[in-house]
Amino acid sequence: MMRARDIIVIARRRAGLTQQELGGRLGTSQVTVARWESGATEPKFQTVQDVVAACKLDLTFGLATADEGSWTSLIYEQLEREPTERVRHLTHDRFDRVAPLGLLGAVGLRAIVVGETAGALHGWPLILSDEGTIDLVVHPHDRRLAEETVLAAATAPERVRIIDAPPGTYGFADLARAAIEVAVDGTTIEVAGLVDLLRIALTDPAPYSQRFALACDATLQLIARVPSSTQSKPPSLRARRARAEEWLTKQTR
Questions:
Q1: What is the pLDDT of residues 177-230, one digit of tens each?
Q2: 112-140 b/e with 16+ CB inside 10 Å = b?
Q3: How do strand 187-191 and strand 111-114 relate by DSSP bridges?
Q4: Which residues sit opposite 219 in a β-bridge?
Q5: Of 204, 201, 234, whose CA–CA distance to 218 is shortest?
Q6: Residue 138: closest CA among 126, 129, 147
Q7: Tens of pLDDT along 173-191?
Q8: What is the largest CA-CA distance in the chain?
Q9: pLDDT value at residue 234
Q10: Which residues neighbour 246 within 8 Å (Cβ) at sequence distance 6 or greater?
Q11: Sequence-separated (6 or more) residues with CB below 8 Å from residue 156
């Protein structure tokens, strides 16, 4: 089951509230909200309901089908793989998703991976759809760079999408707060955090979104129980800028 603190974080971010603003609506302090979200204090169910209502949302529940309940062993297997192998293992079509992701990191592009590819990088169990895309939320200042590198070099550019703001989010700056660094093809890229992927899935009206949400939730619960290779030491800001400047220099020669 999703933890109470996850529900509070998702509700607050969907409402676009700071911890202090949410505390004000509830008649409590920012410190209390922070303790709920960190897990330092376990809020009561009524408190979670009050938080959701304060965010002008409704709290709903669903039941998993038998196959969704059997995801546990599949997620454990995925978490034992490196991120690139997680993506390859779940890819059953001919689209090479790793190459565009590697280029994304190689040029130092400020972009965050979302969607099903992000779920695969985290270790979820869902097979990537045959018509699925790599979805990127790109920093506004780097959109041209993204179009002239990742999109231009992709063997199937129609399967790489640049998205301004996924459902339930406010774009790059919003997702960057909880994004993690993931090692891919000898470099590192930024991937939206699982809580944010869950927030997107719960907001998106698309028919597959509920299944995405269940997969994100199941992975979120298991990922803390096993040593994961998802996160890697992030490159320094200087190194990332140097890569971007090197690419720009080559384009102007």
A1: 999 999 998 899 999 999 999 999 988 888 888 889 989 989 988 876 665 444
A2: bbbbbbbbbbbbbbbebeeebbbbbbbbe
A3: parallel
A4: none
A5: 201
A6: 147
A7: 999 999 999 999 889 999 9
A8: 63
A9: 43
A10: none
A11: 95
Q: How far is Cα 152 from Cα 154, in angstroms, rounded to an integer?
A: 6
Tokens of 12: 């607050």
Q: Which two tokens stand for residue 59?
A: 């709290």
How many Å apart are CA 145 and CA 44, to the nearest integer? 47
Q: Tell me the DSSP string of 227-251.
A: --SSB-PPPPHHHHHHHHHHHHHHH
In the numeric block, the tokens 């330092």 are attached to 40
Q: Which residue has the tokens 């190459």?
A: 99
What is the C-alpha separation between 201 and 203, in angstroms, rounded? 5
Q: How high is the pLDDT of residue 190?
A: 95
60, exposed or middle or buried, with CB in 10 Å at 0-12, 13-18, 19+?
exposed
* Domains along the chain with CATH numbers: 4-54 (1.10.260.40), 66-251 (no CATH)
State the average pLDDT over residues 62-78: 70
CA 243 to chain centre: 24
Measured CA to CA, the distance from residue 79 to residue 120 in angstroms comes to 10
E-strand stretches of the chain: 111-114, 134-138, 160-162, 180-184, 187-191
